[in-house]
Amino acid sequence: MDRQAPVFVAGHRGMVGSAIVRALERAGHEHILTAPRASLDLLDQAAVRHWFEVNKPRYVFLAAARVGGIHANDTLPADFIYQNLVIETNVIEAAWRAGVERLLFLGSSCIYPRMATQPMSEEALLTGALEPTNEPYAVAKIAGVKLCESFNRQHGTDFRSVMPTNLYGPGDNFDLEGSHVIPALLRKFHEARCGNAPSVAVWGSGKPRREFLHVDDAAEACRFVMALGPATYRAHTTPMCSHLNVGCGTDVTIAELARTIGDVVGYEGEIRFDANKPDGAPRKLLDVSRLKAMGWQARIGLEEGLREVYEWYRASEGGR
Ligand code: GFB
Fold it and tell me: How far apart are CA 86 and CA 104, in angstroms?
């Protein structure tokens, strides 16, 4: 990637987008373009086309999305499918129209079938039924992958896709209703410790397994994939299976995660499992061999990452 060239990070205020901006700054990029929602509504096609015509980015990281945990996905299906479809169609089509050299679309590991063989390889896409709690979001993200592939096949664009596993890190959403499991449990255990609560409620059975990747690792993977030469990228993907899994290659049960978070926070009370809440997919471990063969792998271990995010949370949101 040319460090002087304009690079647009769509969704720069989110956890992933802000991590990508930090990774680009660390790598010496001098022309990073961002657009706050107040000045560019990605749901407005005319506005997006106009912004691209005026700003002419050479590279685009499409990290903007409507995201949330299992409860948000399960209760707001129309928001999740509509907003993610519109954002990706607007940005990908405008990028083609404006002659963007390279775009990276960010999906999610939930695009794979609920009962896919574990670990899930890129070829597992569209081979079975999706997890009901996040099917609308998954369908939107699958459409994003297919949008990139279709523009590449018809128009000769170089639009790439990465499918990160469950991400966590600074700038995450700590709202207890809409968040993912790690920020939710960090906050719950923190508040239980500060309030001397006798127990903490963890949703579901605690049996599902999840793979977790620190968002700074994910951002470095995004920069790595964007920097690959077209021949290298094409040598490790196919025109109809062009996406790359991004993960750490190991997973833990939610119960093990809860115990680790309890240790990180220093909470010594009881962990209770709320069977009235959904478990979601039983497991979502990614096969990361494709990206590993290209030379990238995760560096930040889960406990190290959790400690760092907990400190960020206490300094920025947790207060005490
Ligand atoms: O992180 P999470 O909401 O998303 O839930 P998914 C992961 C697991 O943690 C589920 C359990 O089995 C939850 O029941 N869990 C336990 C909790 N306690 C809590 C809690 O307090 N809050 C939350 N949120 N979970 C998401 C998809 O699925 O994965 C998204 O819905 C996206 O669309 C994301 O794909 C990466 O991993 O189940």
Answer: 17
